[in-house]
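Figure 2 data, in text form.
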Amino acid sequence: MSVTLTIRSAHPADMEDVARLCWAYRDLLIERSVDLPQMVEAYYAKDSYAALIADLPRIHARPKGDILVATLGDQTVGCAMYYPLPAPATTEIKRVYVAPSARGTGAGRALMQDAMSRAKSDGYGRVVLDTMSRLTEAIALYERLGFRPCTPYYEADPAFIPHLRFFEHPL
């Protein structure tokens, strides 16, 4: 018997699972960048990251953003979210993460495609995202989905630029 992959908007009851996935995402970034402690501290300091996670429902609130979850059966195995940027008709996709147990199921691709589709329906014409250069699996997914490199769309510390990749995709 196969288990169905479902992508849907998160409900308030899902936020504990979303937080768990976001912390696992942070752990992966730390694991992949042990030689870049200053970058991890700048972007993922524990206290500021905890405050960010607590504020996700406001940051990604409808009608201009959303938090999506991927479920396999009754297990929440992934998340992705988007929200508006100041640039006209532009949204940013953030914190795309799939639990190791669900990798290879298409959950990452489905989360991205659903986020892009919903963003387009919300009136956005362009989506951007950034990732660390060491997240090669994510970069490969974004490229397969048609994302193209772009210049940084926020002011990043020049010391971190070599370790970041910026992408865009028209909607």
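Caption note: The beta strands are 5-9, 66-72, 75-84, 90-98, 126-132, 148-149, 164-170.
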